[in-house]
Amino acid sequence: MSEKKIRGGSLIARALRDKGIENVFTLSGGFCNPALEGLMECQIDVINCPHEQIAGHLADGHTRITRKPTVCLVGPEGFANAVPSMMEAWGERSPVIFITGSSSLRRQGAGGFKEIDDVKIAEPLTKYSASITDGNRIREFVDKAYLIATNGYPGAVHLSVPVDIMFSSFPENAGLEERPFSQSKKIKNIAWPDPNQMSEVLKLASNSKKPMLIGGHGVWWSGSEKKLEAAGQNLNIPIFNVPYHQKLLGEEAKSYMGLADIHQYPPSKFAFDESDLILMVGTRLDNQMNFGNPPLFPKSTKIVCINGSHEEIELNRAADINMLCDPGVFLDTLSKLKVNNKWNLDSKWIEQNILEKKKWIDKSLKDLEKETIEAKKNGGKIHPLQLALDVQDAMKDNDWLVIDGGNTHFWSEIAINIAGHKGKKLGGILHPGTFSMLGVGVPFALSAKNLNPKSNVVLISGDGAFLSGGLSIEAAFQEKKPIVVVIDNNGGLDCISQQQERLFESGKHFATDFRDIPFHKIFEGFGGHGELVLKREELAPALKRALASGKTACVNVKAKGVISPIVAAVSNKRDKASIE
Fold first, then answer.
1. Which residues contact 143 (CB under 8 A, 6 or more apart)?
2. 532: exposed, middle or buried (C-beta count within 10 Å: 0-12, 13-18, 19+)?
């Protein structure tokens, strides 16, 4: 064993370097100093953030785009602040490694400085949560955390580092005297299907007249989105994306229809109702999919779930067939049916879906045009759907769009479907995941800008969502990464107030209003560009100036509060539900 000793924090940094970690996001607290010294020596990029939750969201956003693990490093007091970002990453299966401080190991359980049971708190929000109990085993703990984060279905992991281990010194080659002698990252394990079960699924697919492909986060994390597109295109199968999960395909992809959500994308109801086989790839039959039950899934329709890990199969018990298989392997095998002359489906079924999509878009635009003309005539505010469409009109093909909010998110999703059908292409899209966590917008937008410095990055954020995490905009100024934030400013928590007006006997809303907040002035105060927009005709010129300014900018748009179709449906469902 080497005689040279280094602090535990430096050992952690070296262990991360061995795994190929390139990016760490932190709030530089005193606890982090030994690790920061090590990260500096290892030349790992570190971004300092104004809040631990923002550090976690930045790590998550970066990981979602690159599909490479990143690290969120925070101190003991920062653990609680980082929990929401841990939850958001967990929901999207994002392999972020959370390394957080804890009180002294030698005084554990005695009321140490800022002592909480962080390991237990993080357990339900991660794939793995453990405390490093011996500095000589630091590499072992990091190795195990990395393997768990990246194998099977990926996901967030958590390592708690006691302050005495972080600051104490250990041999620099501690942990290298035992197997595995090499701590470098290894090839990811891929699930291979049972041949008999694969044959059964392929036979079902070959005999199907109206199949659907529904993709979820498993497709993204396996890097199989192009294979999904190819399967739909080559086999004439309409493709749908599970709501909230990572955007898999651009709307310009011919076989991509939209969200598997009858409220945000009504034509999906036609597809569900008419289908005889639904292939769920890399997703789960959870609440968004009505747990696989009618009326969303007809009784006569066969449901096949293909997942790359047993962790997800356990949540798909309602399926007729559950198959353990890497999504990419399945999609490649499915596509070969046509090459092997075992596929006879013509284009009629997919053309019916394309027609249903066109009819919905034409009607939506016609209804919106009436609304917009009426608003202009009466001095009314812009509709959030019109706002989202106009923002995309101002963007170029390789620009990135980020969405944050309640109704703002849902209207923007609808706008993406409509604009894409009209030929709009975007470089990428990011939005909240399964838990619809407000406040992810700014850090996600900054992540997109970090990785796409030559592209414009535009965030459409509800006013409530911006208030949840908007001060993280300082990181954009600090890192000199200009983004444009468009505030859908309807003066309150509109998603909630609209529900209240339908639920409360009085027909009123309560405790959801904001004062008239000058968001654009906040940006000016930080040294950026800001504009207030009161009418639709002012929006396009304001966006053009914001994008041309080269500064982090805010376009504060006074918008009309309009309940989205999905929130209206949820409100109606809750109103009729009984918990008595």
1. 15, 19, 180, 183
2. middle
One-letter amino acid of 141 = F
Q: DSSP code of 246?
A: P
Q: What single-letter amino acid sits at 366?
A: K
Of the candidates 112, 142, 284, 137, which has an alpha carbon nearest to the alpha carbon of residue 215?
A: 284
The residue with tokens 């170029």 is 396
Banded pLDDT at 578 (limits 50, 70, 90): very low
**Rg of the chain (C-alpha set):** 25
According to DSSP, the residues that pair with 428 across neighbouring strands are: 400
Q: What is the pLDDT of residue 470?
A: 86
Domains in the chain (CATH in brackets) are: 5-171 (3.40.50.970), 195-353 (3.40.50.1220), 381-573 (3.40.50.970)
| Distance between CA atoms of residues 20 and 17, nearest Å | 5
The answer for residues whose C-beta is within 8 angstroms of residue 475's C-beta and 6 or more apart is: 47, 49, 50, 54, 58, 442, 443, 446
- What per-residue confidence (pLDDT) applies to 573? 54
Rounded distance between C-alpha atoms, residue 457 and residue 401, angstroms: 6
- pLDDT of 566: 82
**Of the candidates 409, 523, 395, which has an alpha carbon nearest to the alpha carbon of residue 456?**
395
What gap in Å lies between CA 520 and CA 532, rounded to an integer? Answer: 6
Q: Say how many C-beta atoms besides its own lie within 10 A of residue 514's C-beta.
A: 14
Is the pLDDT score of 576 beyond 50? no
Which residue(s) pair with 492 in the sheet? 513
- How does residue 477 score in pLDDT terms, banded at 50, 70 and 90? very high
Residue 506 tokens, joined: 């009085």
- Output the pLDDT for position 223: 95
pLDDT at residue 572, as a whole number: 60
pTM strictly above 0.90? yes
Give the residue ranges of DSSP H helices in 486-528. 494-503, 519-526
Give the pLDDT score at 551: 97
Percent of the chain with pLDDT over 70: 97
In whole angstroms, what is the distance from residue 388 CA to residue 239 CA?
A: 24
